[in-house]
Structure formats: C-alpha cells, structure tokens
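ok so i was messing around last nite and threw this chain in just to see what happens. nothing serious, just curious
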Amino acid sequence: MATQTYRLEILSPTHIGSGQEYGAFDGVFQNGRWYLIDLKKVLERSKEDPTNLANALMQSGFNWASWLQQRNISPAQVCSYSVACTQNPGATKIRACIRDPFWRPYIPGSTLKGAIRTAVLEGLLIDEPRQKRQQWARRAVQRDQHGKYPDRRYVARNTLERDLLIGKVPNRANESNYDLLRALHIGDSEPIDPEQAQIGLAWVHTLRNGQLVQKRAGGEEYKMFLEWLPVGVQTHLTIRLDERLLQGDYPQHLGFAEKQVKALREFADACNKRARSMIEHEGEFYETYGLPAIAKFYQTLGNRLQQIEAQGGFLLNIGWGGGWEMKTVTNPLTVDLDEEYERIRQTYNLGRRGSDVFPKTRRLAYRQSQPFAPLGWVALIPEV
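result:
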C-alpha cells in the first residue's frame, strides 16, 4: 500500500459536529470563555442539595453566572472544559464539535473521505456524454416501488454512485466490497489541542432584492454558535491507497474500468478541479450580490490553491455550513440540461419557482459583527 502523511491546515472556520447542542442551562459565559458545566462538580463544590439545585434550574430566569457568583464559585472550578468565545451566546444554541474521550477536537477520516468521494464522482460524471447525463437526470425524478422520490438530500446520488463508483456486484454479495473507494483508506487526524478550538457565530444569509442579507423571518434570527477550528490550526493524518485492488486482475474482477481506477489514483486532481470550480462560482456569487469581503476571501483562496497544487496537495470543503453546492453533484449532472434541471428543482422543491438563483442562502462565519469567511475550507499538503 502507498501511504502518505498529510498536513491538514484550516483555511476557514471549520465545524465538524458531534450532534450535541448546548443551551443556556448547559454552560456559562465569562471573560471571553464559555464553560460547559459539570453537575457532579457543581454539587461537590457547592455542597448543594440535589433537589434544591434541580428546583433552581426550573426557575424562570435561572442562569449559572449568578448562581455560581452567589456561592463564590468560579466556572473553571466546575466545568468539564472551556472554549474561547468572543461574545455571550445567551439563549442561542451552541453546536458542539466532535471530540475524542479527552475532549480534544479532531477531523474524522470519514468526513474527508466523503468529500473526496464527491470530487471523484463529479470528475467521472463531467466526462460522461450529454445523453448519458440526461438519462441519469431523468432517473433522479423517478419514484420507487412505493411511489416515493429519493431523499432530497441525496438527489441522484445513489443512482450516480451505483453506476460510477460501484463495480459489478454478484447476486447476494456485499455492495461495499465492490466500491471503488474501498481502496482509499483515510485515518482520523491527530488530536488537536483543545485550547485551539473556539466558539464563533455563523449566520445564514439570503438573497433579498438582489442583495445578500442576514436571514430573519417571523421574529427569528437564523444564526447559531459553533465550536469550530479557526484559521491556521494544523494537524496531521495519513492516506493509504491500496494498490493491490487497482492493478492486475482485481479491477476487472471487481468490475472497474480503467478510467475509474485512474480517477481514484488521481483523487487529489479531482479535488482541486472541483475546488477551483467552486471558488470561481462562489467568488462571482458574492461579488454579484454585495459581499465583497467574501468575494475577496475566494480570490485569496484561488491564489492559495495554486500554491497548494505546486506542493502536491489539494483543497476540500468539509463539515457543516458549506451548503448545497459543496455537498452535491447535481449541478454538474445537469450542465446544458435546462429542462432536466428544472424538473429536478420542481420535484424536490429546490428554490422558489421562477427564480434563476439556487441556492439563494449561504452560511457565513462572523467576526466583530461582520461576515468574514465561508465555512469548512481545508488544505491537505503532503509531508516530504
């Protein structure tokens, strides 16, 4: 197996969620940090009767800051961990990042592999003739035997993967054993110092009257706080390519064509090609709709991509907040297929009917009350 160590660098705030959300009762903000409260430590330190504490938590207006201050207890004495946080989240939920048992953040290999898989799939798809892509686009709006459409989160994905990434599967065989990316092994990253994590604000922006603005509806502000890894954080991981499955009789036995094997071997090129397309598209989008700071971010990212390619590395967009186009291959599927694309949009309620712009929302990271970057861009650079 060919094994390569990569240095992973965070290029824009990156949030890989654990699925956990914290609210006002879970922690306390003080002096630029947010503390996750450990109830066991609270009871031990305060000597409070558990019933009295439970009753206090049920009272309207309860907050940990006042409760701890009255007992001369600092949050640091009763927390599981704390995170740098530039503003008080208040009642707004905090989405927790994934951590190991020692509370150290890391980047899961499965997250990276999913993004690479999308890039390889898109690369194979773009090279297909128009007629073939048209067939896939039409199959994407076909109902199953129960009369249901596929999940809108995976429009056409299962069909495309089965035709482009899955080999010839014998009856009753496990499909995963014939998956092209079975030959690609990506480890979790090394743990990251917990002190490098931050809690930051992300806000959904939407198009209104031709401008991108903060989304508000029904008195609700579409914002959230995230535990993220900030720009500049670095870690390491390994990627192994199992050459045994890509040479000799194995590809033919598994049902893979030469172009599929080539696409996997050149996965870094596929990632960069996809990244370049996204950078150009998003840069133009933000320039057109009135957020020049984000357009400038993408201009800088495009320049950085050239440097990363020269080093043999590649770019990915991972984690939460990247948006529809970062996670799907629907647009490349429907290039020069306007009728099919419109049918897909209508079938899955993708955007407002009659609108030429989809998607019209973006999630952006904030700093000092201003959006400064999209979410989830990382670079992987091979270590010599």
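not much to say yet. The mean pLDDT is 92.
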